[in-house]
Structure formats: structure tokens, C-alpha cells
Amino acid sequence: MITSILGRKVGMTQIFDAVGNMVPVTVVEAGPCVISQVKTAQSDGYEALQLAFSDKKAKHTTKPLLGHFGKSGSTPKAFVREVPSDGEPHEAGDKVTVEIFADVHHIDVTGTSKGKGFAGVVKRWHFAGQPATHGAMGLRVPGSIGQSAYPSRVLKGTRMGGHMGDARVTIRGQELVRIDAERNLLFIKGQVPGADGGFVMVTKSPEWVAKRKKQTFTTQAS
Amino acid sequence: MNELIKQIEKEYQKESVPEFEVGDTVDVHVKIIEGEKERIQIFSGVVVSRKHSGTRAMFTVRRIVQGEGVERVFPLHAPSIVEIQVKRQARVRRSKLYYLRDRTGKGARLRERRYVSSKKTE
To answer: Minimal CA–CA distance to A16: which of B37, B74, B21?
Structure first.
């Protein structure tokens, strides 16, 4: 069974669970994805599947990619990711839908976080900054970044200001509240990385993640 | 807001909610699940606030229990709210009746409205 699917974050809302508690959810439009390539040990040296999601125009696609998608009989796609092979035989051109999550409760969601630009040390690393009064001048500066005699240099990895966000982020063990197979929707409890309309990859959580998480909403009225 | 989100929110809204306004005295019938059993509890008091729209619409009911003011906030579309009965309507001049918190007894009375509100005749 394939355990990953590609999708697009639609946005957030609140829904009621079976006993009437409000649950904050992110709606993700996931699939249907097409398997655009099956990698095999003979031809590629390892086993994998390539999933593709979201149509794009042929005129916006490079010729090499057009040829690549043509092989699987699929239209050109904007979002392409490789997932490990599940050991079952799949043909290029097969579809993957949200039904793969039919009995899955916990998922990992990977996306690209919102870009924050050049962020200072307070925002980026949660430094406390300096006092606002008592003659302090700094406010949001980091303060000392090292010692003088030894090591006499700034250690690598010292937390400073710099570019923040717009990076690949994975949140593990998120709860899957509801699946809408008709409209290809996943309802995920809580937040998902990235802006509305951004591409995300949703994967079934590994066992060691799922068993640590409890279900925090009710699926059936008792 | 995204069209799809709007559609989804509509699914979680009740088809019809009883009409009531701030200042009305209402009986809210709340379904309570105790283990296996289900029962209906009635919370009656004055509606002091209504806010937000769509699925997130909330209203606050204030009542005096044993001399102590108690306010409960309900989501309008919660499935646990079985019924809302309007017992008495009042003429109020503000949208939030938080001033009732500072008053007790005679000062906390609201002028009753016996005519039908213009909203309903439309």
C-alpha cells in the first residue's frame, strides 16, 4: 500500500466532532496523484515511485519534462515527489487517492514554511533581547557572541539573525480527523506548514510516532 | 475566504437556528453525555452577547445562580444544543450587555418588549 500522497493546502476552519466539540482543522486537497515513474532496481539501482500532482500547462513545461510525463501517459504536473516503493507492483499512470488513508489515524505533513525574510535574533531564535529601561541601549540585539582570549572567534552554529522560513518543514503525528473521498479532501487537526495554496506531502506516520500520540477528538457518539 | 472552505463550513452549520436577539431571555437545551447516558440540561438566562458569524457564531447567556452571576458561552451551531426557546424579549440599546455584570437586583432589569420586532415582519 502506498503511504504518501501529494496535495495542496486549502485553508483552516473549525468543525464539530461527534460529541459536539469544536476541532480546528486544516483542509488539504490531496490527490488524485498519478504515478509518473516506477523506478526499479534493474534500471535505477533502487525501488521507488514518483508521484505527480496538480496539472500545469504544456507551454509552461520544459521539453524534457514533457517527454517524461508523456511516458506515463499523464498530463504535465507542477508538483513531483519520489516516495519509497511499497513492494507492490505499480504501473506508471496509476492513480493514488485519499483512500490510502482509510484506516490511518496519524500522518506526517511536509510543506514549505512561510518565508519571514531576514529575521532578527529575537524572532528567529526566541532570544529575550535587552531591557527597555535602566539605561539599556540594545533592545533586540543578541549581546555577546563569544569570548575574547579563547576561543577568540565566533563558534560555528552560533545563533544570529538571518534568513528565516521558506524551508522544508515536517510535522509528525498529526491527527487525521476526516477523509472526504468524493472531493479528495483530508481534514487534519491543527496547523500544516506553509501558506494556503502551498503544496504539501502527506505521509502515514511511522509506528513509533503514531503510538505516542493520543486521539484528542471523538469520532463516535457514545 | 476560499469557496471550498465556505462549503465545508456550511455542512457543519444547522439548517435553521431560532431567531433571538441580545436582551432576550432564553432557555438553552443542552445535550449532556454522562458515560453511556444522554440527558438534556436547560440553561436559562439573558443573552448578553452574540458574536462572530458562520460556523463560529457564539452567544453568551447570563443568569444568577445562588446570588452569583454565571455566564455560559455557546457555539450557535453546536450539535449539543438541541433547542433554544425565547421566553421573553427586551428592548436594549447596546449589542453587548456586559454592564449587567456590575449590577444586581433592580438595576439589572431590562425593559420588556411586547411588540414583534421589525426584523421578524420582513
So the answer is: B74
Residue B86 CB-density burial (10 A; 0-12 exposed, 13-18 middle, 19+ buried): middle
Instruction: Tell me yes or no: is domain B17-97 CATH 3.40.50.300.
Output: no
Cβ of residue A221 closer than 8 Å to a chain B Cβ = yes
**Which residues, in sequence order, are bridge partners of residue A14?**
A24
Query: Are B31 and A15 a contacting pair at CB < 8 A?
Result: no
pLDDT, residue B122, reads 41
Q: What is the pTM of this model?
A: 0.80
Contacts of B5 in chain A (CB under 8 A): 10-13, 27
User: What residues of chain A lie within 8 A of the CB of B80, using their CB?
Assistant: 19-20
Query: Which residues of chain B make contact with A14, given a CB cutoff of 8 A?
Result: 12, 55-56
| pLDDT 10s digits, A147-187 | 988 898 999 999 999 999 999 999 998 888 888 888 899 99
Q: In terms of CATH architecture, what is A4-117+167-221?
A: Beta Barrel (2.40)
CB contact under 8 A, A14 and B56: yes
Percent of the residues in chain A that have a pLDDT greater than 90, as a whole number: 31
The minimal CB distance from A13 to the residues B5, B33, B36 is found for B5
**Which ipTM score applies to this complex?**
0.73
Torsion of CA A180, A23, B57, B50, to 10 degrees: 170
